[in-house]
Amino acid sequence: MLHYQPNKDLGETSATAPARPDGGGPKLHVLLAQTQAENAGAQEISRLLGAGLTARGYRVTNLFFFRKSDSFDEPPDTLYCAPSRPGDPVALLRMLWTLGRHISTTRPDAVLTFQHFGNVIGGGVTRLVSRAPVVANQVSSALSMSWPVRTADIVMGSLGFFDRITLNSQDMQREYSRYPAAYRSRMVHVPHGFDDKALTLSKEAARHEFNLPPDCVLLGCAARLHPHKRLDMAIRLLPDQPSWHLALAGQGADEARLRQLANDLNVSDRLHLLGEIAPSRMADFLACLDVFVFPTQAETFGLAAVEAANAGVPSVVTDLPVLREVLSYEGRPTALFVDAADHAKLSAAVSKLLTDKQLSDELRQNAKGLRLRYSVDAMVEEYGRILDQVI
What we know:
Residues 203-368 form the Glycosyl transferase family domain. Residues 1-27 are annotated as: Disordered. Keywords: Transferase. The chain has helices at 41-55, 89-106, 116-129, 147-159, 170-175, 181-184, 203-209, 231-235, 255-264, 282-287, 303-310, 321-326, 343-355, 357-367, 370-373, 376-390; strands at residues 29-37, 59-67, 78-80, 110-114, 134-138, 164-167, 187-189, 217-222, 244-249, 271-275, 291-294, 315-318, 328-329, 332-333, 336-338. It is an alpha/beta fold and 391 residues long. Helix 1 (41-55) crosses helix 16 (376-390) and helix 2 packs across helix 3. The longest helix is centred in the N-terminal third of the chain and has 18 residues, at 89-106. It is globular and about 60 Å long. Mean pLDDT is 89; it is low at 1-19.
C-alpha cells in the first residue's frame, strides 16, 4: 500500500496509527504543495484551506517549488525549494532535490498538491520519498496543459499516484469525463470556498488608497497578466469611451504586451497597472470599481469573478459554461455573460451595467447567495472527509 496501515506482522495495531485531529494524540500533519508563491487564485484556495485545517486540529505546512512574487502574502509555516523559477537543468535538479528533502524530513501524513505542475511534480516526488497519500487538486483545464503534462497527469492519476483528485466545478467533471475509468474513479467534486471580501471603504477612499482618479468610470479586473486572461480585450474598450479607465491588479509575463497595446491605442494614461495585491487588500481594490470585467478565455472556477460579484460589484464575464455554472445562485445569474471576443458586445454589456441600475441591483441581489453556496467551512469539511479516507 502507498499509505499507512497497521502492520500486524510487526506488532502494530490501530493504536499506533496516526492520531485523528480530535483524538487527543499527535496532530495529523498535512503538507500543501504547489508550484509558485504568488497572490493568485490557487494560492488563495490553499491559504484558506490551510487555515481551516489548522483550526480543525491539523498541523499544516505550506511548500512552494519557488517564489514568483516578492509581495506574496506568505502563510505560516512556509517552505521553498528555490528562490526563483529554475532557469537551467542544474537549477531544476537542485529544486527537485530540495523538494524531496523537504517532503522526507517533514514526514507529512498526507500531501495535498495544487495546479498541474504541482500535481505531476509534487505527486511524483512524494511517491519516491514518502508513503504519504497524495490528494491532487486539479484546477487546470485539460486544454490549458501542454500534452506532456496532460499525458503525465492521466498516467499518474490512472496508476494511483494520486489517491484522490479533486475538481472544483461540474463543468470540469464533464471535461474530464473522457479520461480513463481508473482516473475518474478517484475524482471528487469539491467546490472552492472563498473569503467574503465585504467592502468597508467608500469608492472615494478606496481610489485614494490606490492613487486612482476619483471622478472617472473605472473598470477593473484582478487576474494574472497572461494571454489566457485576454485582458487586451478590456484595454480595447478604452479608445471609444474617453471617460473610461481600466485598473488591473496582478502581475505576469503579459505585462509588456499590454503596456505596448495601451501605448499603441493612445490610452496609456487611462490604464492603471497596480501590480500584485495581497488578499487582505482585495476588498479595497474591488471598492474602487464601477464594473468588474472578466474576459478570460478559459477557467475552471473563476474565483476572482466570484469574489467581485459577492462584493456587489456589477460584473461582465466571458460566456463560458463553467462561469454560468459558478456565477449563479438558485438558477439566477450574478453577472452579465457576453462573448468577450466580440468587441461591440463586450462594450455594450459594460455600458448596460453602467446605465441600467435595475439590472445591476438585480445581479447584486442574486450574488448575495454566493457566500452560502461557496462556504469555506464546507470546502474544508470536505477535504477533512477526504483526508479521513486516505490516511
